[in-house]
Write a structure and sequence with these properties.
about 220 residues, alpha/beta, Rossmann fold, 2 domains, 11 helices, 8 strands, globular
Length: about 220
């Protein structure tokens, strides 16, 4: 019989990635002679879905330079030294303990470099909790993660859920017939996430175990 799976998006719900994103932002803006946003300003722009090229133009880059800088950012965002800036949210160990008792845990993430991802998962101790890590580059569609999960070979049962922090997560979970939970601690504001009508919208993962228990 298929079991309940709890699929967690990694960047945002599990990890605070704001330091990594801002470090790369600083690097590419300065390389092209611009003035980087402070971390709080940059992160707020990202959370409000301001396109990367628009952010770069606001930092003083020409449209052409902004396009080039955005391309370089995509290449650098998963550099090993930058990935070391990611941190588990302070409450994650306790939440993972609770979720462990409620179903099989899996990580689902759009990453370009599987070897670097595996090293990060190991270094952060997430391999101790998660039964499977599903990753890939994605195809640019709202249901990008749905394609990865379809190809994973995982068979999930009733009550399974996809928890994420973007419209891609909500659309992907819905496309797979999973319950969808959005958390507002990551790369989208709660107001934007609400437009996608997830089954539940919480501040962060701490509210998810009780919600999952309510489904039983």
């Amino acid at each position: 019989m298929s079991e309940r799976w709890i699929f967690l998006d990694l960047d945002g719900p599990v990890l605070d990635v704001s330091a990594r994103y801002h470090r790369v932002h600083q690097s590419v803006v300065r390389r092209y002679g611009g003035w980087p946003f402070p971390r709080s300003v940059y992160w707020q722009a990202k959370r409000n879905l301001v396109p990367e090229t628009e952010i770069l133009i606001r930092c003083g880059l020409s449209p052409e330079a902004a396009r080039q800088a955005a391309a370089e950012r995509r290449l650098e965002i998963e550099r090993s030294d930058h990935l070391k800036l990611d941190e588990l949210w302070p409450w994650m160990p306790d939440v993972l303990d609770e979720l462990w008792d409620l179903g099989r845990l899996g990580l689902v993430t759009l990453r370009q470099h599987r070897d670097r991802l595996d090293r990060q998962v190991q270094d952060l101790g997430l391999h101790l909790f998660c039964r499977q890590v599903v990753s890939g580059r994605g195809d640019g569609t709202p249901e990008a993660k749905a394609a990865l999960l379809r190809q994973s070979g995982i068979s999930w049962g009733p009550g399974s859920v996809l928890v994420g922090d973007t419209e891609v997560d909500v659309a992907s979970g819905r496309a797979l017939g999973l319950h969808t939970v959005a958390v507002g601690c990551g790369i989208r504001t709660p107001a934007l996430l609400e437009r996608w009508s997830p089954d539940a919208l919480f501040e962060d993962l701490r509210q998810v175990p009780a919600w999952l228990n309510s489904l039983a």
